[in-house]
Design brief:
The complex is a heterodimer of chains A (about 300) and B (about 450).
Chain A lengths: L7 E2 L3 H4 L4 E3 L9 E3 L5 E2 L1 E14 L5 E8 L2 E7 L4 H9 L4 E15 L2 E13 L2 H27 L5 H6 L4 H14 L4 H13 L40 H18 L4 E2 H11 L8 H14 L2 E5 L2 E4 L1
Parallel strand pairs in A: 1-5
Antiparallel strand pairs in A: 2-3, 3-4, 5-6, 5-8, 6-7, 8-9, 10-12, 11-12
Helix pairs in contact in A: 3-5, 3-6, 7-8, 7-9
Chain B lengths: L7 H10 L10 H13 L4 H11 L33 E17 L2 E12 L2 E7 L11 E12 L2 E6 L4 E5 L12 E2 L12 E17 L2 E12 L2 E7 L10 E12 L2 E6 L4 E4 L7 H4 L3 E2 L2 H7 L2 E13 L4 E5 L13 E2 L3 E2 L3 E11 L4 E6 L1 H8 L3 H11 L3 H11 L3 E11 L2 E11 L4 H10 L7
Parallel strand pairs in B: 3-5, 7-8, 10-12, 14-15, 20-22
Antiparallel strand pairs in B: 1-2, 1-4, 2-3, 4-5, 4-6, 8-9, 8-11, 9-10, 11-12, 11-13, 15-19, 15-21, 16-19, 17-18, 19-20, 21-22
Classes of the chains: A alpha+beta (about 300), B alpha+beta (about 450).
């Protein structure tokens, strides 16, 4: 019996990067999956976005890291000697440009508490803006389908695949959503509904699809489809949220305090930030990550290697 | 005294109950010897029958304990109460359909009769291992000593060599049998039979086939209603014509590589229907589906999908096909798998992966589509390949041009051991007003998104 090909899922970067639940395959042929918060059970992922940056990493120089921005965040893509064709295409990219990447979900957990996801490409292709826009729409549809299932799970006392199927949820979606429910507990689905809205708004009349870059504040990221326009990116969160601003300031100070020569490690930042916030309200890893994302968007911090942050 | 009982009907009961095994596991002479030995020893005849049946793995109680030699008027079992896997049952049924086919049984050709029987409680498929001479579709028959099996979870009735079949008056059963299952064409699924389908014939053509060594003219085409369309095969000349609206009673479904096809034969009734169906042009449209739906169904006929081409696979671009008559295999290193070396005929094709986020299928597209997507014809490709000394150059051009792009693809989808295979008839870059699509989606977002 041939093993059927894994469907390539469509997930926004904001959600993909928040994934923490992994299902490890047992045997050699048994695939591993990353379950995203809304329940995409990802072995393979298809992403279309703006490549903002490609650089060689590692000592041998054979590994390339690319950053692919969608309207909600940034995918990190690594291609090395085992993906020679994809690595070759990545190396030849001239950012900024629109690219389509299909690849396998990867995760990296250097120690408990720090968890990083990336993408190991199978194919990389330069595409056009219309293809990216279609991906944003398609990813909205798939994410909305999962979110509706998430809401259905919340309404059920004991959610089962059968109950969800009776409610019209497709089998694979039901499976993923139940796995996510197991792995993450009850989900604040509003956050991901807002992610969908953010992504779609860029396509509306007069809108601009935001592009995110995690590094460098120099010229700022630019949008290939509007080269003459000023950089058209915007932070994830509402810019005028004073609580968020205060948190950002506190986190920025923490990074400065910890970075030394080698940079501040992600979990140290989290520890420090949580200590600092102990008197007030509890601070979650997610809060800290969002703050760091905003700081990266503002160009105040960057991530020279995975899990290590520095101020600019 | 037992001895006064005529043992013959009891022995008949035994042979009927064991008819499945006689000639294979059981020799009839041995059975008779065994039976007579019991009687010799003064075992009551009922007891003897039960004991022998048990010896041969038939549960006592399933076979009648009294001689059921078929006294007329013997109680019958309504079809909806007939259990599967019983060796003996009496029925009063109408022959709803009756067909014959030749099978190989123990190395010999044997003609069997098959079809559907029904009574006022339902219908069931039957197979008769003996000819039903003098019986026609619609006749009512009393059957004594049929045996039953289960096939794919469905009751299957068998008339063995030893059962007794008697023709009854037509009014022995209520005339109106609700035997046909009315279905919409879009809802037709594998394994269904006894269907009543109403639709418009979109196209029909005759072709010659070989049925058991005999040439036969069959009629193939497409029939549609508002819910969908399906390919059909009529094994009899029902005088079908394109654009007719007809009701077909007594059709059945067979799947070919995952795609259901509607079949009917001379036993089916075809009548002009009053139904007010849209014109052929309106019905003859591809059904838009997602790849996830196709995976669930296991295939589809004339479907359209919008999906991304994730990968161009090896063996795409410029290929050379075996020149041997009737063979069109692609040559690998100049060799056909069957016919060895040959001067191949140039062709263009795409093998790839289509994926829309709900499912993933293998795509095969031919020369016309490949030329259109490359923007040049096969001669230009041959010339470039010759100049570059590499045929692979065309595959590389395809990879660069179409990987990651979105296409609307129309065609048939079959299933094989590698999953689903989409045979593209047309494949065009998908254009969509994303502004409108986004507006519609935003309008559908729940309050918590804001």
């Amino acid at each position: 019996m041939a093993v059927l090909r894994e469907t390539a899922h469509r997930v926004y970067a904001d959600e993909y990067n928040a994934s923490r639940h992994e299902i490890k395959g047992q045997g050699e042929k048994d695939p591993s999956f990353l379950v995203t918060p809304t329940g995409a059970k990802v072995n393979r992922l298809h992403v279309v976005g703006v490549c903002t940056d490609v650089e060689p990493v590692g000592e041998s120089g054979e590994v390339f890291r690319a950053r692919i921005s969608d309207p909600t965040g940034v995918f990190t893509v690594y291609a090395g000697q085992y993906q020679p064709e994809a690595a070759q295409v990545l190396a030849s990219l001239q950012p900024p440009c629109f690219v389509a990447v299909t690849g396998k979900a990867r995760s990296y957990e250097p120690e408990p508490g720090s968890f990083f996801v990336s993408l190991r490409p199978e194919t990389v292709a330069v595409v056009d803006e219309a293809t990216r826009d279609h991906w944003v729409v398609e990813t909205a549809r798939r994410t909305m389908e999962r979110l509706q299932a998430v809401d259905a799970v919340r309404d059920e006392e004991r959610p089962t695949a059968e109950a969800l199927a009776a409610g019209g949820v497709r089998g694979p979606v039901a499976e993923g959503v139940l796995l996510a429910h197991e792995g993450y507990g009850p989900l604040d689905s509003g956050r991901y509904w807002r992610t969908v809205r953010t992504a779609l708004e860029g396509l509306l009349p007069g809108g601009t699809v935001p592009v995110h870059a995690t590094e460098g504040s120099g010229a700022g990221p630019s949008t290939p489809h509007a080269p003459a326009a000023p950089p058209a990116w915007k932070p994830d969160g509402p810019q005028s949220d004073p609580a968020a601003e205060a948190l950002d300031d506190a986190i920025l100070e923490t990074v400065k305090r910890l970075e030394g020569d080698a940079g501040a490690r992600w979990d140290d930042i989290l520890d420090e930030a949580q200590k600092g916030a102990a008197e007030g309200q509890a601070l979650t890893a997610e809060d800290v990550e969002e703050a760091l994302n905003r700081l990266m968007d503002k160009g105040l911090v960057y991530e020279p290697t995975l899990g290590v942050l520095r101020t600019t | 005294m037992q001895a006064t009982t005529d043992p013959a009907p009891h022995f008949e009961t035994l042979t009927r109950a064991l008819q499945d095994k006689i000639g294979t596991e059981i020799d009839e002479a041995d059975l008779r010897a065994e039976f007579e030995k019991y009687l010799e020893y003064g075992v009551p005849v009922d007891q003897a029958v039960k004991t022998i049946l048990r010896h041969h793995g038939v549960q006592a109680g399933m076979a009648p304990s009294s001689p059921a030699g078929g006294a007329p008027g013997q109680e019958r079992t309504p079809l909806d109460q007939v259990p599967s896997n019983v060796p003996y049952v009496n029925l009063l049924v109408r022959l709803v359909t009756k067909n014959t086919k030749t099978v190989q049984a123990r190395g010999e050709e044997k003609e069997i009769v098959w079809g559907l029987v029904g009574d006022e409680t339902g219908t069931a498929p039957f197979t008769s291992w003996r000819p039903l001479e003098g019986l026609e579709k619609g006749d009512v028959i009393a059957v004594q000593g049929a045996y039953t099996k289960e096939f794919r979870g469905e009751l299957q009735i068998n008339f063995g060599d030893r059962c007794r079949i008697e023709k009854k008056e037509p009014d022995a059963l209520p005339k109106v049998l609700t035997v046909f299952q009315e279905v919409r064409i879009g809802g037709i699924a594998e394994g269904q039979r006894g269907l009543r389908v109403t639709g418009r014939i979109l196209d029909v053509a005759s072709r010659e086939v070989n049925v058991q060594g005999e040439p036969k003219t069959i009629y193939g085409g497409t029939i549609a209603d508002e819910s969908g369309k399906i390919e059909f095969t009529s094994w009899h000349d029902h005088g079908l014509e394109a654009d007719q609206v007809v009701t077909i009673e007594g059709g059945y479904v067979r799947s070919y590589r995952g795609v259901p096809q509607f079949n009917f034969d001379e036993e089916a009734t075809v009548t002009a229907a009053e139904a007010d169906l849209p014109p052929a042009e309106a019905l003859d449209k591809a059904q838009h589906v997602s790849l996830g739906q196709l995976s669930e169904r296991g295939g589809g006929n004339d479907v359209a999908v919008v999906a991304s081409l994730l990968e161009v696979r090896q063996g795409s671009g410029l290929v050379f096909r075996c020149p041997h008559e009737g063979c069109s295999r692609v040559l690998v290193s100049g060799q056909c798998r069957l016919h060895g070396k040959g001067e191949g005929a140039a062709d263009l094709r795409i093998k790839g992966i289509l994926d829309d986020g709900t499912g993933s299928v293998n795509l095969v597209a031919g020369r016309e589509i490949t030329e259109a997507l490359l923007g040049k014809d096969i001669d230009a490709c041959l010339k470039e390949a010759k100049e570059a000394f590499r045929h692979e150059i065309v595959q590389e051009q395809l990879e660069e041009r179409i990987t990651g792009r979105v296409y609307e693809v129309r065609g048939n989808v079959l299933s094989d051991e590698y999953g689903l295979m989409f045979l593209a008839r047309t494949m065009t870059p998908f254009k969509e007003d994303t502004e409108k699509a986004a507006e519609a989606l935003v309008a559908g977002l729940p309050a918590e998104a804001f």
